[in-house]
Amino acid sequence: MKTNRTDKMLANMQQEKVGQLLISDPTTIFYLTGYWIHPGERLLVLVLSDTGKHTLVVNKLFPITEDLGVELVYIDDTDDAVAKVLEFVDTSKTIGIDKNWPSKFLLNLLDKVPNAKLCNGSDITDDVRAHKDEQELDLMREVSKDNDNAITQLRDLVPLELNELEMTDRLAAIYKDLNNSGFSFEPIIAYGANGADPHHITDDSTVKVGDSIILDIGGVKNSYCSDMTRTFFYKEVSEKSRDVYETCLEANRRAIEMVKPGVRFCDIDAAARDYITEKGYGEYFTHRTGHFIGIECHETGDVSGSNTAVAEPGMVFSVEPGIYIPGEVGVRIEDLIICTEDGYENLNHAPKELQIIG
């Protein structure tokens, strides 16, 4: 177990008066142990206890030979898995449960302990994970540097006039060459009007003169994710598309410049959103300004109008305003930002000024 991270969770548990956490999220278990287990439909639970005695309940299909610094308890497919977990739980104390724990396990637990005091344990774990330590920040810097490289290589393929799916295939090869283990999310390659759909599903569309080209891409390296978006134009750009792009770029810049400890995420969102609205495109900015990122591409926490929490050192999140005019053009510009002790650090350095390719 990674002592510093575990201690932070125990401190949060004490503050919230939670006796034990039932952690089933493989990403949080990896965060605490440095070991990946993907259990599929089977039960996997790390019981974190305020007594300091922690237990990992895992199926025998996933034998662990490393010393994880936690007691290992193996179960098989014929065991009552939830009953086994409860052997290590003090049901007189509040039990924190992962927000994504499958209902088949949770309902079983409620049947066995109908008067149990339960809470959303992910509020505790997510808060700790949101504050990246220096090791994590260095991993985020490394994978983001690779992403700068990847998007530059992908941009340079545009003159080949590959369709969107072919570009995705080329991107997979680029990440492999960069020793990334794969995509952090399914890439969005969107030409022209396709880019007006913020989550366009990449297809066999080909690029045409005057098209915007959205490249929203991310890789995974050492279990940490990158994510970045750049928008280009093919051979020419209309005055309207140029205005949309410059508006989006300025919104991106204004939001990033807001980042420092103590600034509310809703105010960072407003810095981008208010400018886009002022320029007449407010109805075409249809999503939040950003999301937290780390081991998962989308972690708990966001940059949105409803989030009144404040930025704190070590938090890493995207700033990605977009303007999407149906049937015409889409533009999104995204960077990953670290909140530092006195401001911010931008993890992405690929150029953002308007580029016409070809």
TrEMBL record:
<dbReference type="InterPro" id="IPR000994">
    <property type="entry name" value="Pept_M24"/>
</dbReference>
<dbReference type="InterPro" id="IPR036005">
    <property type="entry name" value="Creatinase/aminopeptidase-like"/>
</dbReference>
<feature type="domain" description="Peptidase M24">
    <location>
        <begin position="139"/>
        <end position="341"/>
    </location>
</feature>
<dbReference type="Pfam" id="PF00557">
    <property type="entry name" value="Peptidase_M24"/>
</dbReference>
<dbReference type="InterPro" id="IPR000587">
    <property type="entry name" value="Creatinase_N"/>
</dbReference>
<protein>
    <submittedName>
        <fullName>Aminopeptidase YpdF (MP-, MA-, MS-, AP-, NP-specific)</fullName>
    </submittedName>
</protein>
<dbReference type="Pfam" id="PF01321">
    <property type="entry name" value="Creatinase_N"/>
</dbReference>
<feature type="domain" description="Creatinase N-terminal">
    <location>
        <begin position="5"/>
        <end position="130"/>
    </location>
</feature>
<keyword id="KW-0031">Aminopeptidase</keyword>
<dbReference type="InterPro" id="IPR029149">
    <property type="entry name" value="Creatin/AminoP/Spt16_N"/>
</dbReference>
<keyword id="KW-0645">Protease</keyword>
<dbReference type="InterPro" id="IPR050659">
    <property type="entry name" value="Peptidase_M24B"/>
</dbReference>
<keyword id="KW-0378">Hydrolase</keyword>
<dbReference type="GO" id="GO:0004177">
    <property type="term" value="F:aminopeptidase activity"/>
</dbReference>
